[in-house]
């Protein structure tokens, strides 16, 4: 369970504008979904997400409507600490790979790694769960131990550093792909036909959510109801 979100901290990190709380307007096509919103009355932000070649691709664009004092514009990735503690991160840089460990306990210095990278790999201790992140064009990335505030490790991708002057626009792409081993622990299922629990009237769906997805279209075309 990981999350990725556009966030804009004001100068001094006293408060944070977050894309998820800005009530974005959503539109969809057959291949992508787009969210548009205005953050803090100063930034028009657009995020388009699509799947391609087993990757989840975020195309991000922001335009400054007014001058505002900010630390920058970030794509922040939060990883569950209980899964990744003891695991490993690898940042690909021009000077070679930067490799480190997600600590099992919160260290005194919560900033773990900083570098400019086109790609990074985040893995759990068993190396069975792995997240690959690609950034185009390459960007500065800060990895920190977010257990200082919660139960996460945080990766801050610097989409834009410092103030974005009025009228200026920037764009970046962040892609995710995952790899992992299948859980190999055996499971045992026991069915007691003599014990009545409750009546089932039916099993199905109401197609209220995500109705533009290719999965929904395939189901409607092929399910023999």
Tally of alpha and pi helices? 2
Gyration radius over CA: 21 Å
Query: Would you tell me the structural class of the helices and strands?
Result: mainly beta
Portion in beta strands:
over 45%
Can you give the mean pLDDT? 90
**Percentage of residues assigned to helices:** under 10%
Keywords summarizing the entry:
single chain; 225 residues; mainly beta; 13-stranded antiparallel sheet; 2 helices; 51% strand
What does this structure look like?
This protein is mainly beta and 225 residues long. The chain contains two helices and 13 strands, in the order E-E-E-E-E-E-E-H-E-E-E-E-E-E-H. The protein is globular, with a radius of gyration of 21 Å.
Provide a concise account of the structure shown.
By secondary structure, the chain is mostly beta strands. It is 6% helix and 51% strand. It has helices at 81-84, 214-222, and strands at 3-9, 16-18, 25-28, 32-39, 43-52, 55-64, 72-80, 88-93, 96-101, 111-123, 129-145, 152-161, 169-180.
What is the secondary structure topology, with strand pairs?
Blueprint: E1 3-9, E2 16-18, E3 25-28, E4 32-39, E5 43-52, E6 55-64, E7 72-80, H1 81-84, E8 88-93, E9 96-101, E10 111-123, E11 129-145, E12 152-161, E13 169-180, H2 214-222
Antiparallel strand pairs: 1-2, 1-7, 3-4, 4-5, 5-6, 6-13, 7-12, 8-9, 8-10, 10-11, 11-12, 11-13
